[in-house]
């Protein structure tokens, strides 16, 4: 099972932006999906909604930063770092680094990800 304090989920899981389901890449990823029920009930649908909302929040953050509105930018950044957005933003940002994977991301999300290194917000040991 993955340890969120030391494991990079990217090495073990992939988020399908079309379905919201996590897919395992390793045995530890599979165990985490099963034990934690990462694909249970409405979680996948919630991830899809979070992906759409995260795209809008990223654009808001970019606009606030460009306008010099630090308060609004900080508000949007905090929202993106909270659940349910944190895991989907992290996975989307990682996917956006690879041309073959970025094609399956929603276009507006990929465009927002191109404008800032959102991965720099996450600390993975």
The secondary structure category is: mainly alpha
Question: Tally of extended strands?
Answer: 2
**Main sheet, how many strands, which sense, barrel?**
2 strands, antiparallel
Structurally, how many domains make up the residues?
A: 1
**Secondary structure tally, helices:** 6
Q: Give the terminus-to-terminus CA distance.
A: 16 Å
The global form is: globular
Give me the oligomer status: single chain
Q: Strand arrangement, largest sheet?
A: 1-2
Instruction: Note the run of SSEs as H and E.
Output: EEHHHHHH
Helical residues, percent = 55-70%
Short structural description:
This protein is mainly α. The protein has helices at residues 27-36, 43-67, 70-81, 85-95, 99-102, 107-114, and strands at residues 13-15, 22-24. The chain has 6 helices and 2 strands.
Note down, in words, how this protein is organized.
- A two-stranded antiparallel sheet has the order 1-2.
- The protein has one domain.
- The mean pLDDT is 91.
- It is mainly α and 125 residues long.
- Helix 2 crosses helix 4 (85-95) and helix 2 (43-67) packs across helix 6 (107-114).
- The protein is built from six helices and two strands.
- A hairpin with a 6-residue loop joins strand 1 (13-15) and strand 2.
Helices and strands in order:
Layout: E1 13-15, E2 22-24, H1 27-36, H2 43-67, H3 70-81, H4 85-95, H5 99-102, H6 107-114
Antiparallel strand pairs: 1-2
Helix pairs in contact: 2-3, 2-4, 2-6
